[in-house]
What we know:
By secondary structure, this protein is of the alpha+beta class.
Amino acid sequence: MIKNSDITPPIAKKIPHQLEKHGDVRVDNYFWMKDREHPEVIDYLNAENAYCDSEMAHTKDFQSDLFEEMKARIKEDDSSVPYKYNGYWYITKFEKGKDYPIYTRKKDSLDNPEELLFDCNVMAEGESYFKLAGISISPDNKLVSYGIDTTGRRNYNIYVKDLETHVVASDRIESTTGSSSWANDNATLFYTKKDEVTLRAFQIYKHRLGDNSEDELVFEEGDDTFGAAVYKSKSRKYIIIACYSTLTNEYHILDADNPEGKFQVFQPRIRGLEYSISHYDNHFYILTNKDKATNFKLMKTPDSDTTIENWSEVIAHRNNVLLEGIDIFKDYLVISERRNGLNEIRIKRWDETEDYYLPFDNETYTAYTGTNVDFETEILRYGYNAMTTPSSVIDFNMRTKTKIVLKEQEVLDKNFDKDNYISERIWATAEDGTKIPMSVVYRKGIKKDGTNPLLQYAYGSYGSTMDPYFSTIRLSLLDRGFIYVITHIRGGEYLGRDWYEDGKLLNKKNTFSDFIACSVHLIKERYTSSQHLYAMGGSAGGLLMGAIINTAPELYNGIIAAVPFVDVITTMLDDSIPLTTGEYDEWGNPNDKLYYDYIKSYSPYDNVEAKAYPNMLITTGLHDSQVQYWEPAKWVAKLRDLKTDANKLYLKTNMDAGHGGASGRFESLKEDAEEFAFLLDLEGISE
């Protein structure tokens, strides 16, 4: 099947497979790679790994140096800022030389003895992948439920442990999202079950501790374009079921004191009505796009009358401000907003005696509210960082307006000085005249003469905003002369909800043309040149990478596409694949010919041509549940067959991991080091 040696890239065999829809026939020569269990598929992936390793063998020492350099900047014996919940202080910490977190708590005071909840280093022994999630403490503080995934497919088994005896109960709940919520009786757990094939979260079950009878199904989401989740309100009064799709929400509520009761619908779903709910003082507060509030508004309703006709306005819709979220306290309402792309945190007293914003003075920063689980406090915890400023965790007293910096990220590099770096925000003009913002960071002293290597990054889907952030890993590029750019293209929500709407469905191509327009601007303004311009994106950002190299390959010297979603049309026609049916509102449903034709016109795999492509490193995980491994594998095989250049083309498959890559704290740095070595090698930089 495969010809492979140290110098010859693997050539995958072709088995033509016809795919017909709307009278259109596509021939997929590599459709056979979809069989995860087939020995020839595994052989092909292993051969690609061997080829990549052979081709990059000369960089192995450099990769090792980069890994040690990245690791050395990270404080190995580190711990989180403690937060208080229900009488206990909770702490997550790491110990030197260990890959996984340790979870502990202290009762009442931080001066009291530490109780061990979980040592994930012990739990992960013997596992090639390990992830603990969904830690949930019972109301009486005596039990903890938690989820464990050992494959990377985000499919968790839930367990319950007694925190006094440290005995793990025989209860084992399989195929879940990992999270669970306790009723107030300390004996009943609500959790979300996944479909075994598609991994869609769609059923809510009730589990009674120690009860060997079958768990009770309390809710099932019948619409396969929706998912479901269950959680507890911050007020601890309600168990809440959330039903969600890209464009529509619905919630069901149950008094947490009455786990045997029936869930009541909060407001029946109306297509296009998005809303989220928070409970406080006999009312629910509702973040919603009701009445064409594109950037969302805040409403409230009595918890006894929750349907839409009872909702009243608290904060009106504004065309220039995106309302992103709220945090509720006993005396204060905290509102997270976004104006002109920048985060703002607004603090408002319930008695309306005060209403003000936290001051921020940078143009490329990220600010966000942190872990705020305590209702009674007047302290707001928030985080702040910028492209030149390590992240901080800050406690702000909303009454006295004073703040304490609880923790600043330590950069363990004696040569690091944030004043050595410059960040700026610049704007490119897209094809349709729209101004596209970019956040830029580089080392002082760089001349804009077109010779600088530059890495341009973006995501651009699902309304997910890539805020400018600090990265110790990125320093390994900046200190070797790279400029780093985050491109805030349409498809995210950087400039409000319309920014997202203009980059999805039949506007999706704006995402790609925006990125290319930014590349052209960076070259025109002599930040870089096409000989030194690199692009990177992952998942839906990998789709972006595939689209830009089909459209404008001559602009880029190299591309990194991580777990890329590139076989869009075939995946969106296969409703057995995880995520597909829930994605129709993002990409369109290709069972409709209008969307079929549009998606086909940009789907990277379908548009590979016989032409020159940039140097490329493509990564995936065999157990990826989000973007199946065969998409990048097929894409690489087709590129190998058709491309006319002699540039590098590598496929690297993590045979033990899923969408998020390696699970250990430092294992993932090895993947970063390999990617950076690929880029630096193209620039002739080897140390």
